[in-house]
Design goal:
alpha/beta
């Protein structure tokens, strides 16, 4: 696909830094480079993929905006598949903005979020799954997320989808042949693509099974700390974060708003949320705070229910346990204040409540049991690593497309098993192939494409 306009954007985060980069892509990238850049040596050949030193000039051709290094990468051997100019200059935002303004004067258009990557996709430099993997790689919060994003960027998921697609096309070809020449073939001699279909079903089911754990490797595990007032929730957040994030007092109801902190545990990213104490609200502010707690519980991947082990269990404690014992998410009971004499034993709790709880004894004040709690959170965030290098899916869009493909293939299999006309099985196989093509972008609606790339940062 050929674009007639040339786009430009600052490709580095806003803020003062030693260096910054401006990226330009389009048919006029090389010409604009010649107009604003004065090489430090005469006779600049403007060879592709060569780094040149010189000055960036203002419109008068004399005033120097900055000293810079410039690279021109000619199509099709560039990130976007178009001519790409990259300007590495000093990272003062004023300098970057002045160079960008000069590019706009020359005729560049400001790039939209993700437009460079979108052009790379439209120009065949990557499939859509690779483009999405690039966003995953940039936003990775752990080493494992980085490795998954890099593998997908290298094409691991796209290759697996293409292999599945080729198998289904082979099966579809057999069905099409039966439609066209079925009258010339005896039923007992007719080829049936049951083998390809069975393998495809197994492959897709295996891919779908990776979604939940892989999701935790590429995004934060949401851990919400709940409990009655003064159970030690804020102390626990501070202890896990290693710094004072929440105010800790003996006054019940001190925490009114949600307080969050993201921590790394064994290469995983866990987003902790401290919440208001759950009890009958004493005023309208506390009522609003408790409303926020209930919303955060719905979105949580894991609940950490903090109980004060130094005082008898109350109705507030038992209500919290009862309301969350049958939840689909995992819950951890953290019996706090074990540095004080216990008012009850943990076995009394497990005997009373049969929910899917892990019970840990901790002291947020002195750190006892926190390593065990961290290890438990890390285990809930997924396995230690994807050691076998297997392909995983991390995007909800991919999951939904695979589920659609699985439904189509399963329906095709049922058509074959019940002896229906091959037209029905062929139709279902086409549905499945189109669903797989949604993942790689061979078949994709423009509004979906725009939505995907709108989530990217400007300059990427």
């Amino acid at each position: 696909m050929t674009h007639t306009d040339t786009i430009a954007a600052i490709a580095t985060p806003y803020g003062t830094a030693s260096t910054g980069m401006i990226r330009v892509s389009g048919p006029m990238a090389g010409e604009f480079g010649r107009q604003l850049f004065r090489p430090s040596r005469d006779g600049c050949a403007w060879q592709s993929h060569r780094l040149y030193h010189g000055d960036i000039l203002a419109a008068d051709g004399m005033t120097v905006l900055d000293e810079a290094l410039v690279t021109l990468m000619r199509a099709p051997h560039s990130f976007t598949g178009e001519d790409v100019l990259e300007i590495s200059c000093h990272g003062n935002p004023l300098i970057l903005e002045s160079i960008l303004e000069r590019l706009m004067e020359l005729g560049c258009r400001p790039a939209r979020p993700g437009e460079f990557t979108q052009r790379a996709f439209l120009n065949g430099r990557m499939d859509l799954s690779q483009a999405e993997a690039l966003a995953t790689l940039i936003s990775a919060q752990s080493g494992k997320a980085r490795r998954i994003g890099l593998a997908q960027l290298k094409g691991s998921l796209g290759q697996r989808i293409d292999e599945l697609r080729a198998s289904l096309i082979d099966a579809l070809a057999i069905m099409e042949a039966l439609i066209d020449f079925g009258d010339d073939v005896r039923p007992e001699d007719a080829p049936v693509p049951a083998g390809q279909i069975a393998v495809a079903i197994t492959e897709i089911e295996n891919l779908l099974s990776t979604y939940r754990q892989a999701k935790f490797l590429t995004s934060d595990l949401e851990a919400v700390i709940i409990g009655k007032p003064n159970a030690g929730k804020s102390s626990l957040l501070n202890a896990l974060a290693g710094k004072k994030k929440a105010i800790v007092t003996d006054i019940p109801g001190t925490t009114r708003d949600l307080i969050t902190e993201t921590i790394g545990i064994n290469g995983r990213s866990v987003r902790l949320t401290d919440t208001a104490g759950l009890r009958k609200p004493q005023d309208i502010i506390e009522k609003e705070g408790i409303g926020l707690v209930k919303e955060s519980i719905v979105q949580a991947d894991v609940l950490i229910i903090v109980l004060d082990g130094s005082t008898p269990l109350t109705k507030e404690d038992t209500d919290i346990l009862e309301q969350n014992k049958s939840a689909a998410r995992k819950s951890i009971i953290a019996i706090n204040k074990t540095d004080l004499p216990p008012a009850w034993a943990s076995h009394e709790l497990t005997a009373q409540f049969s929910g899917d709880f892990d019970v840990l004894n901790i002291s947020a004040k002195f750190g006892a049991g926190l390593d065990e709690l961290k290890n438990k959170l890390a285990s809930l965030a997924g396995p230690d690593d994807n050691q076998d290098g297997s392909v995983v899916i991390t995007q909800l869009r991919h999951k939904l497309s695979l589920e659609k493909a699985l439904a189509g293939i399963t329906a095709a299999s049922e058509c074959l098993q019940t002896g229906q006309s091959p037209e029905f099985a062929a139709f279902e196989l086409r549905v499945a192939i189109d669903a797989l093509d949604e993942i790689t972008g061979k078949v994709i609606q423009d509004d979906v494409l725009d939505k995907i790339f709108s989530t990217f940062c400007i300059g990427k």
